Amino acid sequence: MKKSIGAKTIVYPTPVFVVGTYDKDGKPNAMDAAWGGICCSSPPCLAISLRKVTYTYENIMAQKAFTVSIPTQDFVSEADYLGLVSGRNEDKFFRSGLTPEKSKLVNAPYVKEFPLALECRLLQSTELGLHTQFIGEILDVKVDMDVLGDGNFPEMGKVKPLMYAPGEHKYYAVGQCLGKAFSLGKNIMSHT
Amino acid sequence: MKKSIGAKTIVYPTPVFVVGTYDKDGKPNAMDAAWGGICCSSPPCLAISLRKVTYTYENIMAQKAFTVSIPTQDFVSEADYLGLVSGRNEDKFFRSGLTPEKSKLVNAPYVKEFPLALECRLLQSTELGLHTQFIGEILDVKVDMDVLGDGNFPEMGKVKPLMYAPGEHKYYAVGQCLGKAFSLGKNIMSHT
Fold it and tell me: What residues contact residue A192 under an 8 Å CB cut-off, 6+ apart?
């Protein structure tokens, strides 16, 4: 028997996306977004939702571009900081000691110290209520060599991304690998 | 120095959302979606992206409703199976031994054995390319009592959700708690 806890935005996992943008003066900024995810395979697209009051909202609207960098767990304090203050009031790259790396594909910076970064061109924005959803086409994925595994893909166990738990307001690490997708369930299929 | 791996849908973590629907004859179906996430806090909304060829696409279009159940890691094989076959060809609830529980709020079933379920009313659908994005308003969240922690919220460490790693095509478990959000980064702020 399940208990009702109301109409809440609680689902697991949610990501810790660090959204990189430039403001109108070319100052780099980064903020956290837990509301988002991949939304299309072809063209490859990613969605992030932001409140209108954020500095990043303004920047994406002006530049039509953003990046998403994936912080590794060693940088959990820096990642948390990026969600605590606005780029209007503080130079968050400077304060956190993180380095903005200018994308060659879009007018937005990604975080050099984080192992995985997606460079996105704004395709559309939709007002949903408190949040606006931005959909960006992923033009490229940049990866640190030391997190690449077999098949030239970054391994989740090496990237060590953060997971955010809404409600609890806590960060979690990735645990053990549980096995291969499109494989573990084959014994349940009627035709194997 | 980062390496370019091309325009790929690789980001960590992505969720394993089990999307529950009824078909036109009232037969329950469930499928996996890794492309999705929360997209608005008010109204509380969740986005999932599906290909048009899926049975679930048809069902959501017809019923204007769906649920998202979060499988716990003990059910990783069942969850994987739900992504391997189409509900057009197999009764996936029957084969997997999972139980469809009819939502009282929307015309869609959730998975009784999974600890967390969101009941959603379709708000909009957008064709993005290979995938169509469905945005649903979260009308309620149902939680198993044994995963509730302090503050009446499900604890991620108790829910033990799955994480999917695109590219690698592997599932991962949740690891240790790394600390409190909106807190770890306070020492970096200029005004504390």
Answer: A186
